[in-house]
Write a structure and sequence with these properties.
The protein contains 6 helices and 9 strands, in the order H-H-E-H-E-E-E-E-E-H-E-H-H-E-E. The chain is α/β, with parallel strands linked by helices and 219 residues long. Helix 1 runs parallel beside helix 6. The radius of gyration is 17 Å and the shape is globular.
């Protein structure tokens, strides 16, 4: 990879298993090697030098609809719908006002949490999923309009959580049942299974309970 090229942006299907192995090898070599592989540098910029973040500060509906459907809007909708700020009247113009209630042992406690490091191409943690004790920093892919690979998801969440103190977040990815990611997970290669183990990645699946609700299931 060239200097300062993010690993997550270098993924191709042609070299897929080789890139999985490259990430595993970096994990085995330790923190500095992993940082260099993920960021293309051992000293990426700090987000703290560019701004501050108020935990759980998102307090309104984004008005999600089919024409403006994005991963970010989906995450915002699910966080708001299941959070302390929820007001049904605020969601009257949202196409999904009757969807995305979350039931079960896991809940969504925050979304769009900044990565520890800062730079072009470094996004945000999609969702924080919690069982009341562990905070799972989670990369989520929507139920429609995407075909991103598991390697891309894993490398994204490893990039966005790198630098955070040990124990603050458990790294995780999440997808919807019936998605391309769910299909890849069901047929996961030995290399991908090893990456989940070496990277300490938790995998969640959003399973539909009914037309209004989903259950977050740990796989």
């Amino acid at each position: 990879m060239g200097k300062n090229l993010l690993f997550k942006d270098s993924i191709t299907k042609k070299e897929y298993n080789l890139l999985i192995r490259e990430l595993i090898n970096a994990i085995d070599k330790g923190e500095n090697a992993l940082k260099t592989t993920l960021f293309g540098t051992i000293e990426p910029e700090l987000y703290a030098s560019h701004g501050t973040y108020k935990e759980g500060g998102h307090n309104r509906c984004g008005g999600l609809n089919g024409k403006r459907f994005t991963e970010k809007r989906l995450c915002k909708c699910m966080y708001y719908k299941n959070g302390k700020y929820y007001n049904p009247k605020d969601c009257e113009q949202c196409d999904f006002q009757d969807r995305f209630a979350i039931i079960g042992d896991y809940q969504i406690t925050d979304y769009e949490v900044p990565a520890y490091f800062y730079g072009a191409g470094i996004g945000e943690i999609d969702l924080i999923i919690s069982d009341g004790t562990i905070q799972y920093a989670t990369e989520l892919k929507p139920f429609q309009g995407n075909d991103e690979t598991l390697l891309r998801m894993v490398s994204e969440i490893m990039t966005y959580t790198a630098g955070y103190p040990a124990g603050q977040y458990q790294k995780a990815i999440a997808f919807f049942e019936g998605s391309t990611q769910a299909d890849e997970f069901a047929k996961a290669s030995p290399e991908m299974t090893e990456l989940f183990q070496k990277g300490n990645i938790t995998v969640f699946c959003f399973k539909k309970v009914n037309e209004k609700a989903y259950k977050i299931c740990k796989l």
